[in-house]
Specification:
Number of helices of chain A: 2
Number of strands of chain B: 2
Shape of chain A: elongated
Strand content of chain B: under 5%
Radius of gyration of chain B: 19 Å
Helix content of chain B: over 70%
Oligomer: heterodimer
Number of helices of chain B: 8
Structural class of chain B: mainly alpha
């Protein structure tokens, strides 16, 4: 049981240090995963861009 | 190397130059004040990508995206950008975070192209802000290196550990040489004139009153 817990915990924090370690591949179609990233870009442009240009 | 037109004149080697040169380059098109705004915004967008890519080393794309959102909404970034106007810090951090995935690829897979990307990005970050790479090398790149080492030891035993340790050492030496070359004018100036500068008051200095800042 203890070993299973350790394995589960290890897999939860395991590094994705394979070929994909260079970040998201351009051809990737993980739309669900990309949505928060695109939202972050838009938020940054609107919120920080707005403050910067207003200032 | 001496700019006489501002603040009674100063040596342009008295600070890593890349962020200021970026503003100057953009300023030829839109004027200096707008150029600073544009450069700062580009640095923030670069930082969003950097946080996402750094987070992707550890978690999946969705979680990494939320990490990027958290960074955009963080008070730390807002304060750094809109209160203190720390363009060099933001830009250097962005470049350094973009260096983390290639560092991981080089250590794990021995990808020579990733080695080149790592060294160039660390060198670019050093050209923007020297202090950020000192802390960033420990807290970001160092953490990635330790994680790769730890995992390799568990999976491949001693041989994998030694190989990755060797790659890490090679990367460190190469990066140190490039950073040294980039920052040589600043270090030479700093060694010859360490304490006669007049500190320019800015908000970051009030956070840590014990830290001496030269600008």
């Amino acid at each position: 049981m203890a070993t299973t817990d350790i394995e589960r915990r290890r897999s939860a924090v395991e590094l994705s240090l394979t070929d994909s370690a260079a970040g998201p591949s351009p051809g990737s179609t993980d739309d669900l995963g990309r949505r928060p990233f695109l939202l972050a870009l838009i938020l940054a442009a609107v919120f920080h861009g707005g403050l910067l240009f207003a200032g | 190397m001496f700019e006489p037109r501002w603040y009674t004149g100063f040596s342009v080697a008295s600070y890593p130059p890349a962020s200021h040169q970026s503003v100057a380059a953009i300023g030829t098109l839109v004027g200096l004040e707008t150029a600073f705004v544009v450069a700062q915004l580009l640095a923030i967008l670069l930082l969003v990508g950097g946080v996402y890519r750094f987070a992707r080393i550890w978690v999946g794309p969705r979680s990494a995206g939320f990490a990027a959102i958290g960074m955009v909404l963080s008070t730390a970034l807002t304060q750094t950008v809109h209160v203190f106007g720390q363009l060099p810090t933001v830009l250097a951090l962005a470049l350094l975070l973009h260096a983390a995935p290639p560092v991981a690829s080089w250590l794990k897979l021995g990808d020579v192209r990733a080695l080149g990307q790592s060294v160039l990005l660390v060198g670019a970050a050093a050209a923007v802000h020297h202090v950020t790479i000192i802390f960033g090398a420990v807290f970001f790149l160092g953490a990635v290196g330790l994680a790769v080492l730890s995992r390799s030891r568990a999976e491949q035993g001693r041989s994998g550990f030694v190989a990755i340790f060797g790659r890490g050492g090679f990367l460190a030496v190469l990066a140190f040489m490039v950073v040294g070359l980039v920052l040589l004018p600043y270090w030479l100036w700093s060694a010859s004139d360490p304490l006669r500068q007049v500190p320019i008051p800015h908000g970051a200095g009030t956070i840590s009153s014990t830290r001496f800042r030269r600008r």
